[in-house]
Amino acid sequence: MNSMTKYTPPTGQEPPATDADVLAAFFEAVMQAAGDSLQKLTGKRSQRLGSPALAMAVEAGLSPQMAYTVADTARYTGIDKQTFYKEHDAGRIEWIVPKGSEKGARISVYEVDRWMEENVA
Of the candidates 120, 119, 118, 85, which has an alpha carbon nearest to the alpha carbon of residue 107? Predict the structure, then answer.
């Protein structure tokens, strides 16, 4: 087929309007398939991770870790980070700060699990 030959669709099919329409349809199909696969994967992963907080973090798109920043913890739990600061100040949730630093607090996923069991209905 040379560049001057007109495309003729198979019988019963309409030709795509433009190359952009073809690409849009292709990417839509790819994204749907990826979404279906991700849903299956995260469902299986949640059962294997052992920690509900870790499963939530992974499902929120974070890489698996033992502890996350206060901001990341707020992101994956959906709880405002100021709530975590208040809970820490009240002694209800513990976190670690890297040695020699005043910032960069990390909350263990197991601490989040414990705190949620005790404080979130």
Answer: 85
Q: pLDDT for 16-59, tens place per residue?
A: 567 777 777 776 776 666 666 655 655 555 455 678 899 889 88
Torsion-angle region of 94 (φ positive above 0: left; ψ -120 to 50: alpha; else: beta): beta
Share of the chain above pLDDT 70, in %: 66
Give the Cα separation of 51 and 64 in Å (integer).
11
Three-state SS at 68: strand
Q: 64-89: b or e for each residue (b if 16 or more CB lie within 10 Å)?
A: eeebbbbebbbbbbebeeeebeebbe
Q: Letter for the amino acid at 78?
A: G
Residue 58 tokens read as 């992974």
